[in-house]
Structures are given as structure tokens and as C-alpha cells.
Amino acid sequence: MPELPEVETTTKGLRRTILGLKIKNVWTDLSTKDKRQKESVANPKYFKIFKKEILNKKILSVERRAKNILINIYGGKTILVHLKMTGYLFYGEKQKIKFAHVIFTLSNGKYLVFSDMRKFGKITLLDTKKIHDSKHLKNIGPEPLDKKFTLEVLKARLNKKPNGKIKTVLMDQSIIAGIGNIYSDEILWHAGVHPERKVFKLKEGEIKLIFKAIKEILTKGIDFGGDSMSDYRNVDGLLGKFQLHHEAYRRTGEKCRKKDCKGVIKRKIINGRSAHFCSVHQI
After folding, report:
1. Which of 27, 237, 249, 282 is 20 to 30 A (C-alpha) from 48?
2. Is residue 3 flagged as an active site residue?
3. Closest C-alpha among 121, 82, 111, 66 to residue 236
4. Is 2 tagged catalytic?
5. Has 216 been annotated as catalytic?
């Protein structure tokens, strides 16, 4: 699933390519009666309303909130896109894109394509002024790369789930925004903390190491253009490179690369999600 670095990479790509353009048309082949998708373009009735609202509207700005992409358009509306497990956005000339399920035609003759193999992604339309109070965003925790996200803020957020296992708590979007399976594994490897450690048992020094790793690993993920171990591509259709720098994620059975460490990378299911960690230095 695309996490903060992948969504940030996509957001930067959209700022570079679609600002100032108008949406001339939109198409989808999605069609569901699932009530959970009632306010999504996957619902045919909602799609008609969505299309009417966005046609000929200029794209004013693009933002990211947690794992959500916010495309602000003229008229006080915002297109919210959540890539979910296998989604990505492609910008460019008309060409065959695998698993293309939503296509926006732009005023410069190019296209913005939403590819999503599993069809779990979400595209909806909201009032720009109310978007951060909407059900989609209102319960999300603070942004970990924000300057306001300090060590003290991290401590306060973790203390909301004192009995939680640290990997699970780091991935909880109501605690901290944007961290998922890949980056939680990498953060904890760098901090030397076992993913099953309970929050209340973490020492001051360990929380400091986690804080430092959060900032460094997420920034590194953005610098490498995201992680394309799975389906993710940037808006130019290119792979990210963070997967070439994994220390823990999906390295099961391989030797730990920490200097002087004799451990190997193990995999374990924790609260329904896989965790990868060193058998020795993560304690």
C-alpha cells in the first residue's frame, strides 16, 4: 500500500504537471452497489454528480494529508484520492495503462489516469473548506514530517495506546499520519526496537531513536521517489527506488546488515500484519 513517501511523491508530481489545467472530461468503468462506496466514483449514481461538478473546472492546487491526495479545483471543491493498496496516478499522453479505472481528460490534451489493480482505491468530491472536518480526514493524527511534530508530540501520541505493540501503534493513522507496513519495519530496524514491544515499556532513549528514524526514513523514502516493491509508480509511470534500500522489509532469512550484528531478518504476523525485524539487535 502506498504510504506517506509514495503519496508525497505523487503530490509533488501532480503539482508539476496539472496545475492550471481544466478538467474537460472524466470516464470510469467502475460500478458497484457496495454501500461503503456510496460516495465514491465507483457508485454510478454518485459518478454522475461527480462528473457534473468537476467538468471545465480549473485545478488550483494539490496537497497531501496522510495517505490522501487532495486536488483543489475552482468552485470550492476538492477531489480526494486515496490510492489504497495498489493504486497510482499517471499523467501523460493517451496510452494503454494496465488496470486504468478512472481517466480525467485535461485541457492540454493529456490525461490523468487512476490505475488500481485491486479496485480498492477511493475518489470522491468534497467541499474544500470542510475537507479537514470530513469523515475522511478528521480523525487522522499529526504529520510526522511537520516541524511541529517534535519528540514531545511523538511521546504524547504513543501514550494514547500504552498497551499497544509499537509497530501496530506506528501504523495507526489516528496516532500518526502516513506510516504503514514498509516504513514501520524500516523505522524500527533503524531504532533497534522489536515490533512487539509494548509502548509503555519503551525507554526514553528508545523513543528518541524511533523519533529520529521516523524523520530520517520517511525523508529518505521521498528522496528515492517512493517504494515500488508492489504496484506503485509515480505520475510519469516510473518506479521508485526505496525498495533497493530495505534493511528489514521482505528480507526474511537474510543476514542483518547492521554493522557487527550477527542476526538474520525474521518475519512474524503481528495483529494481522507482517513484520520484518532483526533477530538480534531489535530488542
Report:
1. 237
2. yes
3. 111
4. yes
5. no
